[in-house]
Write a structure and sequence with these properties.
The protein is mainly alpha-helical. It is built from 18 helices and 4 strands. The strands form 2 sheets. Strands 1-2 form a two-stranded antiparallel sheet.
C-alpha cells in the first residue's frame, strides 16, 4: 500500500521545482487527484470489424514510421461524444470545489456534479474520453496498425502478452488504470532493448536523468531501464506522480512523452486547461499531439485483437529464478559451464550492458530460467571470474571498446556495421528496434553494450 502523505510530499516537491523552473500557471494547477474531481466515465468506442486500408500517421520520434498522410477513405467505425458534454459546469458550481475551481469543469461528470459536494465520485478503469474532433486521429492510427505495420504490431502484442501479468500486477499496486499497460506498446512494443534517437531506452523509454530520479541504476555495467520489472515500477511511480500533478490522464501521458515542463508551459501559454486544447496549438510538438490518440488506437486493438485481425495466442508469463553471484562473471562463461543457453541468459538479464555481472557488486542477483537455479549454483565455483583484460583478449588483439552510438555513413549496411562492431545483425536490429535491414546515412544506431 502506498503512503499518501509521502506521495503528496514527493509530488509537492516535484511541482514546486517545475513551477520555479518553467514559469507555470499563475493561477495554480491541481497538485493531486484528491484535491480535484477526477475525470468522468470514458465513452464507449465501438469500432467496426471492417478496417479500411490507407497510409497512416507517423509513429513517435523514437520509432520513425513514415510521412503524415491523410487516410484515403473514411471509417464508419466510431461513435463519440464531446469531452465536456452538453451541460458545462457553471462558475458557481465550479468554485465550490475550492482552489482548483479552474479545472472543475474539465473533470465534471457528463450529467453534472454530484448534489453533495462531499460525496465521492465513482471512477472507472477507462482512462479518458476522446473529443469528437479527435476521432479521425484515432481511426488513422488504427488503420496504420492494421495495415502498414500489421506484422510489427502483432509482434508488439505477442511480446506484451509475455510481460502483461507482471505489468498489471505492478500497476495495480500503484492504483493505476489497467489500460495504462498498453502505453508500453506505443513506447517500445515492450522491447527491453529498444533505443530512441533521444537516447531513451527500455520498455518504458526512460531518459537517463528521469530513470535515476526514480531509482533506476544506470552505469557502465548495468542499465536498469532495460529491466522489465524495475523499469515498470519506475514507470508506475512516474505515471502516478504525473497524474497527481496534472489531474487528468491525457495531460499525464502527454507529460510522459514530452516532459512536465513543456506541458506546463503549453498550458500557460495557451491559457488552457486540458490536453485537447493544447493539442490544437503550436505549443507542443506534433509527436506529443499524436501520442495520446496513438495510445487510444493501440488500446482499442489490444483489448480485442481478434476483432481486428490480430492473433491472440496465450504466452507463458515472464518467470525466472535468481542466483546470487559474488564476483563478476560473463554470461557466456555461465552458459558454457551450466548448459543454460546464452541467449536465454541475455533475455532474462537485459540490464547487463556488457553481458557481465558488475565487478562492484559483491552480491548480484542473476536471473536464470525456472528450474535451473540449483544446477547453476552448483557450477558457480567453476566459472572463471571476468576481468577487462580477458574480455579484450577474447575479442582480439586489435579489438577496441565499442562506442555506444554510431552514425550511419554512405555505403553502410546493417551487415557491415554489425561486423565492424562484432555484433550479429539480429542483435543490432534488436538494440535499435528495427524490423527491416534498411538504414540510411545519418541514422543513429545503438552499438555499445
Amino acid at each position: 500500500m502506498r503512503n499518501p502523505a509521502r506521495r503528496q510530499s514527493h509530488v509537492g516537491i516535484l511541482l514546486g521545482a517545475l513551477l520555479i523552473g518553467s514559469g507555470a500557471l499563475e493561477g495554480g494547477i491541481p497538485v493531486s487527484a484528491e484535491s480535484s474531481t477526477v475525470e468522468a466515465q470514458a465513452i464507449a468506442l465501438e469500432p467496426s470489424t471492417q478496417v479500411a486500408s490507407g497510409s497512416m500517421v507517423q509513429n513517435q520520434a523514437d520509432e520513425p514510421i513514415g510521412d503524415l498522410q491523410e487516410a484515403s477513405s473514411n471509417l464508419d467505425s466510431f461513435r463519440a461524444e464531446s469531452f465536456l458534454g452538453s451541460d458545462p459546469v457553471s462558475l458557481a458550481q465550479a468554485k465550490s470545489f475550492g482552489p482548483d475551481w479552474r479545472f472543475a469543469e474539465l473533470f465534471a461528470i457528463r450529467n453534472g456534479l454530484p448534489e453533495d459536494p462531499n460525496a465521492p465520485i465513482v471512477t472507472h478503469e477507462s482512462i479518458f474520453r476522446v473529443p469528437h474532433s479527435h476521432n479521425h486521429k484515432v481511426e488513422r492510427h488504427m488503420r496504420f496498425f492494421h495495415t502498414a505495420i500489421h506484422n510489427r504490431f502483432e509482434q508488439w502484442l505477442d511480446r506484451l502478452a509475455h510481460y502483461r501479468p507482471l505489468v498489471e500486477g505492478i500497476f495495480s499496486e500503484f492504483d493505476l488504470p489497467s489500460d495504462l499497460v498498453f502505453l508500453s506498446l506505443v513506447e517500445s512494443g515492450f522491447n527491453p532493448n529498444a533505443y530512441s534517437r533521444a537516447r531513451a531506452t527500455g520498455p518504458w523509454q526512460f531518459m537517463k536523468g528521469t530513470a535515476r530520479l526514480y531509482g533506476l541504476r544506470v552505469d557502465q555495467y548495468v542499465d536498469e531501464r532495460r529491466d522489465p520489472i524495475k523499469s515498470t515500477v519506475a514507470a508506475a511511480r512516474y505515471l502516478r506522480d504525473l497524474y497527481d500533478l496534472f489531474g487528468t490522464w491525457p495531460l499525464a501521458m502527454a507529460a510522459y512523452n514530452a516532459g512536465e515542463g513543456k506541458v506546463l508551459r503549453a498550458l500557460r501559454k495557451a491559457r488552457a486547461e486540458s490536453f485537447w486544447e493544447i493539442a490544437q496549438t503550436r505549443h507542443i510538438r506534433r509527436e506529443t499531439k499524436e501520442y495520446v490518440s496513438r495510445f487510444v488506437a493501440a488500446t482499442i486493438i489490444a483489448k480485442n485483437p481478434d476483432r481486428y485481425g490480430f492473433s491472440s495466442e496465450a504466452r507463458d508469463p515472464h518467470q525466472f529464478e535468481e542466483v546470487v553471484v559474488h564476483r563478476p562473471v560473463h554470461l557466456r562463461d555461465v552458459a558454457k559451464a551450466t548448459g543454460v543457453p546464452f541467449h536465454e541468459l541475455r533475455r532474462l538479464n537485459p540490464e547487463l550492458r556488457r553481458d557481465v555481472t558488475p565487478p562492484t557488486d559483491p552480491e548480484y542477483h542473476l536471473k536464470v530460467p525456472v528450474g535451473t537455479k540449483a544446477g547453476v549454483e552448483q557450477m558457480l565455483d567453476s566459472i572463471p571470474a571476468w576481468n577487462q583484460s580477458a574480455s579484450t583478449q577474447r575479442r582480439g588483439a586489435h579489438a577496441v571498446q565499442s562506442p555506444e552510438w554510431y552514425r550511419v555513413r554512405v555505403g553502410d549496411s546493417l551487415a557491415k556495421i554489425a561486423k565492424r562492431f562484432h555484433l550479429s545483425v539480429p542483435e543490432l536490429k534488436a538494440r535499435n528496434n528495427l524490423t527491416s535491414h534498411l538504414v540510411k546515412p545519418g541514422d543513429l544506431l545503438a552499438i555499445g553494450h
